[in-house]
Amino acid sequence: MADQIDTGLPPNWEVRHSQSKNLPYYFNSVEKVSRWEPPAGTDTEKLKIYMATYHSNAVPSRAPAVAQADDRAGKIRCAHLLVKHRDSRRPSSWRENTITRSKEEAFEIIKAHRQRIVSGDVSLGELALTESDCSSARKRGDLGYFGKGDMQKEFEDAAFALEVGQLSDVVDTASGLHLIERLD
């Protein structure tokens, strides 16, 4: 019971970890249902604190080093911070069940996030933990390695144009507004 209070999730819900996607998800132990977004009735502020505390460790190794090197050919690794708006493809997230902000409001939010990152006040990864509307927030926005054709075209074009360590301008996709940082 204490876990439910700490997580902010409604009764019978718990946070579990997907081995295949290496991401946390939400599971109802009574109804035996799972979902990527928090269930209705979640205290999102408590959940943000819980997730930042217990699900923000560095990304564990996914495979032996030799296999990883082969898998990385032609791929890059990026982290991102996503701010969704009501016209996004799926206007909900782990932070909010229903996102109602306008695209203009989302743009102002992400511009402020970018300014904080550029000024050195906070890193993209630190900010993603609590402010990104993507489930990758739990991994500090780290999307892992991906190649051409794996992401939405606007995202891919911006990501592949970055140098390692470089931060993108705001990138607009069907998913919402992104800041992208090239990691490898």
UniProtKB/TrEMBL annotation:
Pfam short name (any one): Rotamase
Record's keyword terms, sorted: Isomerase, Rotamase
Catalytic activity from the UniProt record: [protein]-peptidylproline (omega=180) = [protein]-peptidylproline (omega=0)
Domain PpiC per the UniProt entry, residue ranges: 73-184
Keyword Isomerase included in the entry's annotation: yes
Enzyme class: isomerase
Presence of the UniProt keyword Isomerase in the record: yes
Domain of life of the source: Eukaryota
UniProt cross-references to InterPro entries, sorted A to Z: PPIase_dom_sf, PPIase_Pin1, PPIase_PpiC, WW_dom, WW_dom_sf
EC number(s) stated in the UniProt entry for this protein: 5.2.1.8
Name of protein: Peptidyl-prolyl cis-trans isomerase
Lineage of the organism: Eukaryota, Fungi, Dikarya, Ascomycota, Pezizomycotina
